[in-house]
Structures are given as C-alpha cells and as structure tokens.
Design goal:
The complex is a heterodimer.
Chain A lengths: L1 H20 L1 H21 L11 H26 L2 H7 L4 H30 L8 H26 L5 H27 L12 H29 L3
Helix pairs in contact in A: 1-5, 2-3, 2-5, 3-5, 3-6, 3-7, 5-6, 6-7, 6-8, 7-8
Chain B lengths: L1 H26 L13 H28 L2 H32 L8 H22 L4 H26 L14 H45 L4
Helix pairs in contact in B: 1-6, 2-3, 2-5, 2-6, 3-4, 3-6, 4-5
Classes of the chains: A mainly alpha, B mainly alpha.
Chain lengths: 233, 225
C-alpha cells in the first residue's frame, strides 16, 4: 500500500509539473501531427487517396517518434536542477520511482494518442474506430510497453554524454517487436477498408494484442529486475 | 607460453583458410540448382554462426558485469560486441551477394534475414553507445545487452509471423560427403578466428581500462592535473 502511494506520488509530481507548463504535451502533439503531414506528401497518391496498407505505419511512426521526444524531455527535467538526486535520496524504493516515472510518460503518450489517432482517421479516411475496443487495447498495451522500456533507457542515459542522439539508438531496436505488433494489429483492424464486403481480421488483431501483453509482462519484469543495478548514484 | 599458443592457432587459421578455399573451389561438387553461386554458402553460414556466438558471449558477459561489477567482464562484452558487428557485416554482404545470385534480389524481407539484420543493428547501437556514451557508458551498454538478449526471441517470433514467406528448410543437416567436411571445416576456421580476435581485443580493452584506472588514481592522488 505504501509502495503504491509512493508510485502515485512520483507520477503525480510529474503530471503536475507538466500540466503547469504543458511543454511536453504541446511539443509532442505538434511533432506527431507534423509527422502525419510529412507522410501525407509521400503516400497520398495522384488520385488523392492513401493506400490503406500504409496508414498503420504512419500512425505508429508518429507515436514512436513523438514518444522519444517526450521521454528525453521528461528525464532532462530531472537533470536540470539535479532533482534526480533528490528523488533517489527520497525514502522510497527505486522501483517506486521507476514505476512513477513510467506512469507519467505513459500518460503523456496516451494524451498524444488521443489527438493523433482521430487525426489519422480523419486526414487519411481510415475507419479506425469501427472496432474501438481492440484499438484502445492495442494503444494502451503498446503505450505501457513503450514507457516501461523507454523509462529504463532514458534514466540510464541521464548521466551519459550525447543523451539525445543515443536514446533512439538504444530504444528502437528493443521496441521493434512492439512496433511490429502495433502496426500489424492496427492493419488487421483496417483489413479491407473501403471494401464493404470485406471484414476486419479480428483474430489477427487479438493475436497481436496478446503478443503485446506478453511483451509488456516480459519487459516490466526485466525492467524491475535490472533498474536498481542499472540506475545508481 | 600463452602468446606462443596464440600464434600457433593464428598459423593454423591461416593454413585452414587456404585449405578451405581450395576445398570450396576444387574439392566440392557443384550444386545442382545454384551451380557456382552455392560456394558462398561455405563462408556465409559460418559468419552467421560467429555473429550469434559473439552476441551470446556479449550478453552473458554483460549480465555478469552487472551482477559482479568486475571490469574484466566488461572488456569481454566490448570485444565480443565489436567482433559481432564485424562478422555481422560480412554475413550481410555475403548474404546479399548470394541472394542476388539465387533469388535475383539483393534483399528479401524474410524472417531469418530481418531478424539477423535487427540483431546486427542492435549490436551497432551497442557499439555506438560504447563509443559516444562517455564515462558511464559501460553500464548503459550492459543494460542494452541484457534488454537486447531478452528481446531476441520476441523479435524472432514477431518477425516470423509477420513474414513467413521463406520457410527455407535448414540445409546444414542434409549435407553430404565433401560438402559436409568443407562446411564444418569452414565453421571451425571461423570459430578459431573468432576466438583469436576476441582474445586480442579483450587484451586491448583490458589495457585501455587499466590506463583509465591508473589515470583516475593519479588524478585522485593529485599527481596529474
């Protein structure tokens, strides 16, 4: 119980700092929207339509890219006035700090998704909300995995030189299964979009949702197990 | 004594190199379907074996480094990571050449190819962290190696389901006669080269680390500024 309140305290601190300045949320959302626009230059065909096959990719690249932006900024904040030291000195377990940070990041990414997913649906005419329940499951599970893995690496990078360039270098190779699963699950929901006789491949979508759940569990366990020894001093 | 052994094995690998080249071109029959192109297989597959072995060594060494905090494990991890990048690059290049000859394209998004490429990218990222991460990069690199090791089965599984185009049945157990001998000799050759490179590189990292430590101690003692 005490542990949970420590986690909540760390997460709430991050969210409060953010809701006062809204710096991370505004920049992340803007950047994600910009990624969508840049993709539209590449993928909108001469007839003015977008091939449905590329829409999941566009969505997940936008989420993945803006996520790193938020991650590095959220941890940079702790570095600026050396508050990370304060956090680590606080009388609570390191695991609680880690989980609190991860929850904060997950909230930022989810808020960005609330904007970006409808934008994708509207701008590219994708019937993303025909199957809202699996879509929400996919987004939540992928966001959890992303923020857990991201928080470990962003925390480790705090004391490293050239943090900002190294974060994507270390993060994306680990995120590959998550991005494949997210993209494929979204693609399964969009299967046969625009063709009234076709139906979405819900079995495939739920298969990837289960895969995402397994990915999350494995990496939450790995992160909890290694965080203490990886992020010290 | 140690050094003498090292040079003996280096000599053996040089001889084996010429011997396998001879075997590959004169001692093995031509493949029925691929003709001459199949010859690259004798080096391509051993390179892949070395890549995977080096990755395993780097992962285990990183785990030990995190648990025991002994710089010697870190030296091994660094050396194995570098060798993995080297052999991975050779594997990708030789594989592309073979792919162009056998399938008509340089690259296919097949499960095995994609997994190998991602593994190689992971190791390149690992080396980038080591090179540009600065003083506390060793811990970050170890963390990356552990997460990467956990990730490999997930990558393989997800890529396999995503791309089940090319369920290329394993050819290795079915090899016959001289092809079989030549193949395993090449594997042996590449494993020896791997171990030799690893030992040489570990020695180098150890000296670098010792220089670093001596320098830090001298700084602490006020002998340097």
């Amino acid at each position: 119980m005490e542990f949970l309140s420590q986690v909540a305290a760390v997460a709430w601190k991050d969210l409060r700092v953010e809701f006062r300045s809204r710096e991370i949320l505004y920049t992340m959302t803007f950047f994600a929207a910009m990624v969508l626009l840049i993709f539209s230059f590449a993928f909108v065909t001469r007839e003015g339509v977008v091939l449905p096959d590329v829409i999941p990719g566009i969505l997940w690249v936008a989420v993945a890219f803006s996520g790193t932006l938020g991650l590095s900024r959220a941890f940079d904040r702790e570095r600026e006035s050396d508050t990370m030291r304060g956090l680590l000195l606080a009388p609570c377990s390191r695991t609680a700090i880690f989980l609190g940070k991860a929850i904060g990041i997950a909230t930022f990414i989810l808020i960005v998704e609330i904007v970006v997913v409808p934008m994708t649906a509207v701008l590219f005419g994708a019937p993303l909300f025909d199957h809202a329940v699996p879509l929400v499951l996919i987004l939540i599970l992928a966001t959890i995995g992303y923020s857990v893995v991201g928080s470990v690496f962003a925390a480790m990078l705090l004391r490293t030189r050239s943090r900002d360039v190294l974060l994507p270098v270390v993060l994306y190779p680990i995120l590959v299964p998550l991005l494949i699963a997210g993209t494929k699950a979204t693609a399964a929901l969009l299967e046969g979009a625009g063709d009234p006789t076709a139906v979405a491949d819900l079995d495939a979508a739920y298969f990837w949702i289960k895969f995402l759940a397994v990915y999350d569990m494995i990496f939450i366990a790995t992160a909890l197990w290694t965080f203490e020894s990886l992020v010290i001093e | 004594m140690k050094q003498a052994m090292y040079f003996v094995f280096a000599g053996i690998s040089v001889l084996l190199f010429f011997y396998t080249i001879d075997l590959i071109f004169y001692g093995t029959p031509l493949d029925a379907g691929l003709y001459f192109n199949q010859k690259i297989f004798y080096y391509h597959v051993p390179q892949a074996f070395v890549l995977f072995l080096a990755v395993i060594v780097a992962g285990v060494a990183s785990l030990l480094y995190i648990k025991r905090r002994d710089g010697r494990y870190d030296d091994v991890a660094e050396a194995a990571g570098e060798v993995a990048v080297l052999f991975g690059a050779m594997m990708l290049v030789s594989g592309s050449i073979w792919g162009k000859a056998a399938w008509g394209v340089w690259w296919q998004w097949d499960a095995r190819l994609t997994t190998s490429l991602l593994l190689w990218m992971l190791m390149v990222g690992y080396m980038l962290v080591r090179k540009y991460g600065g003083p506390s990069a060793d811990r970050l690199a170890a963390g990356l190696a552990i997460f990467g090791a956990v990730n490999i089965p997930l990558v393989y599984f997800s890529v396999k389901i995503w791309r089940t185009l090319h369920p290329e049945a394993s050819v290795v157990p079915g090899l016959q006669g001289s092809m079989r001998t030549t193949f395993w000799l090449s594997v042996l050759l590449f494993q020896i080269v791997f171990v030799l490179l690893l030992i040489a590189r570990v020695g180098q990292s150890r000296i670098q680390r010792q220089v670093r430590e001596v320098r830090e101690r001298a700084l602490d003692a006020g002998l340097l500024d």
